[in-house]
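Entry 12.
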Amino acid sequence: MRMLSLPLVLTVAATSAGLLALAPQQKTVQANGRERVGGMRVAIEIASGSEGRIAPNACYRIDSLCKAQGWDDSIVTGTDIDEASELADYSVVVTGDVGIHDNDFRTYEGALKDWVRDGGGFVGLGWIVYGVYLDSAWQMDSIMAVSCTLDYNYLTTGQVHVTDSLHAVTAGVNDFNVQAYGEYANAGLQPGAVMLGGYTADTTGQASIAVRDVGAGRSVYLGPICFGNFGRYENEPYYDDADAMLLLKQAIEWAVGDSTGIGGPGLTPVPRAELRGAVPSPFGYRTTINYCLPTAGRARLVICDIAGKLVKTLVSGDLPAGAGRVTWNRTDDAGKTVARGVYFCRLQAEGTDLSRKLGVR
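Predicted 3D structure (tokens):
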């Protein structure tokens, strides 16, 4: 598939209607060596005894979204996808916890982990951090974009705020209201993950939307789009919100590699730019930002505060291919020392959009 041709930009930035009536995706998708014509095949996983299986809860609304796109999908249980041969029938797995700890993550997490690392797609929805933490499903945690090791938290007010509108997952998505609950992970991002959105009511910089490359596969976390029981958690309005559903649709597409033509199950990964984060972080006086570019090109490296305001421009010009590093001494463009807080690295290159969190103590 054709790669996007985009100008190379390197930045450090801060951490915002019912079914989509979009044209069905009629593409050939390879999943673990199998070729399918007509679009993606989505596994919507929910435990057989879960109260979330009672219509019209989340799994059925996701099923309707898939069918509106022309995607082939199935509502499955953990025992339906606990072997590599069973997962090979799918392009992406979408799951979450209903919010009362009735998941079956431990049933299939081992097979899922290996499948994603080999090129599968994974989308984890709200309450998944809660479920993974309570079940100690650490193999599933290892492929997520956020870390479940310190349990979950949630907000009940404000908006889901897109902080990166250039990424394929969040492109065209406007900020939308938190509907009853919006989950986030106390432990923050997994190493190598990229934050694409937060919450307006959160001042700690936690991710509501995050993505991560996991081996040859891809993983997305959508904390606000809860997988729960509508009657118990009153989160059905997410599934009637055009921006929330656009976000979910694009997350599924990106996870399977269908939005940029890069990666996807069974496909050989295309070399891409890497943003390897800052060392040390958090830091007191200076930190070094490490990155790697697959090709030479024009780049710009800046620092922004948590509100997105430009703090300092570090690099603006052509950068060579290969590994590089830039040091930030905690000063702004006026030479003043910046306050303690959260800042973010962001890297944009051909078909790649990455960011990393920086902590100033």
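Annotation: The chain has seven helices and 21 strands. The CA atoms of residues 343 and 358 lie 5 Å apart.
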